Sequence to fold (341 residues):
Amino acid sequence: MNVRAVLLGILTGKLPVAEGEIRINGHTYTGHIRQAVPETGFLLLEEGEYTRLTVKENLRFYSKLYGYGRPVEEVMRIVRLDAKAGVRLSALSHSERKRVQYARLIIQDAQLLVCEEPDQNVDNETKLVFRRLVQQLCGSGKAVLILTGNMETALSITNRVYRLDEKGLQAFDIQDQEEQAAESAVPEPSFIQSADETESSRKEDGQPDGDIVKEEEAAEEIEQTLQLFRFEKIPTRMNDKIILFNPPEIDYVESSDGQTQLSIGGELYPTAFKINELQERLHSYGFFRCHRSYLVNLQKVREVITFTRNSYSLVLDDVAKTSVPLSKTKMAELKEMMGLK
Fold:
């Protein structure tokens, strides 16, 4: 959060670039870069609003301020506020007021658009409006930089994600083709040779049949012991304690930068297991690999939301209505599982 505040301060010209440099569109900037980059637009989490003005009056004011030449009626249609044109901002819902900010983003008509938590606490219709708006802006040659702490937002809206942590800025792979390649590279599960195969191989090595029988008996005993002591719980470590969770308690599993975490009741718990290992362990409990970086407990899923042809989310049945990203390839697999065409 502190780094985000500093970055926004630099981009808006409130703070100078103390060290290093910022590059935008192939140009390098130092000092107060806001003066040097006028074609940068912003959608900030905390913005002033003219709540006594109607939606249309607000957009007309912004159009004059930024010299926007297209009709505001067209902008209202894009953000689905045409039915609210004559309503004051003070009478709008939080989601509708956020869409007024989206409209202002269009009117700024800048080549670089910086958005801070653009879909925080908004309804699904507003999320859909923003996703389509980003596609439209990028399709017209503009760049959109989204600063968010919500991984679901980052994965579902953008095509390039970076995570900032104590190690620095790390690229986060979200491409479908790379996702498929990574999954195909997962080692096949090990297998046990059949008795006939074992016997033939032993005979080639000149090993007596009696040893084969003893090995088979030992293998059966080990298998029975493993079945007897099958460990169902998933261990996590918090401080100096190891916490054991039953699989049905887990809402979803998230993997990022080599760290896997279990989401349980809105809290995240780190685990030593890799997501591929958990996928195998939790498959029989109804967990589904909805994204390269996510496993979800299908028993906790309430809705499947389609934002665009390539953007989907799973909404969980919890108080926060948590959203988990669903990749395009996994959407087809999920529909087949549910018997849908």
